[in-house]
């Protein structure tokens, strides 16, 4: 696999972005970046700083001095805040409850946008989130928009968390969908040019196979186009 490819994977919670991205990156020898984990990490830092979560300026100030680092090995992704491992902390209900509010603050998004683009660098990476194909990497060679029925998403999340209350999980997913897609800065959208994949009827393995086939097809197309440009193929004599 060409090591400069960027695969942008967007979609709502529980659509399968993380598990699909990690498996695809591992299979294709690419790096992996979970941008949701970065927003969760800044949220944990903002909570620890005791900032007023109703006050965007207070959130921005608390986030401004926080150093977030992401390890991009798809088999062992890591996330630290000021050098401290926060992998478990960012999955707590407290962080989940507040992450969409923190992610709505423009200064928070700008700070992470700079970091995300620095990590993407020359590519060779699968990046997942809500604004990857639209804002972070609009020139990505491969753009995917994953969805699934809310019932399936809630069922998946409930099983993953070992929680009992599917209805509460579903309500929480829909609450975050609404904040994420309604915010003014970089709202969660289906990016222009993204291939829409409804994962509801497919197993994770089936989705991974479909995405790998698409990445191969799209990157072959790009290679063909580049070769065409190099030889002048397709242009007027
Ligand atoms: N196609 C699928 N079918 C069934 N379960 C899936 C599928 N894709 C992902 N899952 C499971 O659903 C849960 C949420 O998936 P995840 O990849 O974390 O979604 P997202 O990153 O979009 O929130 C995980 O436990 C994962 O193993
Ligand atoms: N690129 C991104 C990634 C996540 N976010 C926000 C919106 C999401 O509700 C939270 C958490 O994202 P995450 O991908 O961890 O959420 P789930 O694992 O799907 O529950 O962060 C964002 O605004 N932009």
Give an account of the 3D structure.
The protein is an alpha/beta fold and 237 residues long. The protein has a single domain (6-227), classed as P-loop containing nucleotide triphosphate hydrolases (Rossmann fold, 3-Layer(aba) Sandwich). 52% of the residues lie in helices and 14% in strands. Strands 2-6-1-7-8 form a five-stranded parallel β-sheet, sandwiched between helices. A three-stranded antiparallel β-sheet has the order 3-4-5, with helices on one face. The two termini are 33 Å apart. Mean pLDDT is 92; it is low at 231-237. Bound molecules: adenosine-5'-diphosphate and deoxycytidine diphosphate. Deoxycytidine diphosphate is lined by residues 13, 35-37, 39-40, 99-100, 103, 129-131, 176, 180. Residues 7-216 form the Cytidylate kinase domain.
Cα-to-Cα separation, first versus last residue: 33 Å
Assembly type of the chains comes to single chain
Beta-strand proportion: 5-15%
What does the radius of gyration come to?
18 Å
Look up the CATH topology: Rossmann fold
Which class of secondary structure composition applies to the elements?
alpha/beta
CATH superfamily: P-loop containing nucleotide triphosphate hydrolases
Strand order of the largest sheet: 2-6-1-7-8
Bound molecules: adenosine-5'-diphosphate, deoxycytidine diphosphate
The helix fraction, in percent, is 40-55%
What's the mean pLDDT score?
92
Spell out the helices and strands N to C: EHEHHEEEHHEHEHHEH
- Shape type: globular
CATH architecture: 3-Layer(aba) Sandwich
The count of β-strands is 8
């Amino acid at each position: 696999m060409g090591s400069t490819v960027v695969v942008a994977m967007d979609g709502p919670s529980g659509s399968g972005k993380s598990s699909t991205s990690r498996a695809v990156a591992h299979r294709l020898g690419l790096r992996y970046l979970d941008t949701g984990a970065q927003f969760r990490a800044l949220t944990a830092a903002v909570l620890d700083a005791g900032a007023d979560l109703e006050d965007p300026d207070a959130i921005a100030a608390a986030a401004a001095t926080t150093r977030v680092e992401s390890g991009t090995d798809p088999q062992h992704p890591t996330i630290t805040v000021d050098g401290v491992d926060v992998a478990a902390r960012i999955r707590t209900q407290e962080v989940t409850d507040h992450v969409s509010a923190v992610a709505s603050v423009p200064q928070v998004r700008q700070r992470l946008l700079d970091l995300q683009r620095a990590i993407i660098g020359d590519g060779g990476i699968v990046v997942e989130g809500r604004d990857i194909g639209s804002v972070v990497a609009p020139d990505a060679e491969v753009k995917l928009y994953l969805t699934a029925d809310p019932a399936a998403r809630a069922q998946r999340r409930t099983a993953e968390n070992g929680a009992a209350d599917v209805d509460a999980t579903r309500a929480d997913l829909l609450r975050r969908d609404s904040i994420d897609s309604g915010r003014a800065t970089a709202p969660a959208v289906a990016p222009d040019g993204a291939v829409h994949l409804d994962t509801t009827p497919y197993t994770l393995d089936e989705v991974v196979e479909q995405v790998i086939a698409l990445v191969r097809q799209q990157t072959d197309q790009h290679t063909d186009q580049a070769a065409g440009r190099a030889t002048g193929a397709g242009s007027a004599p």
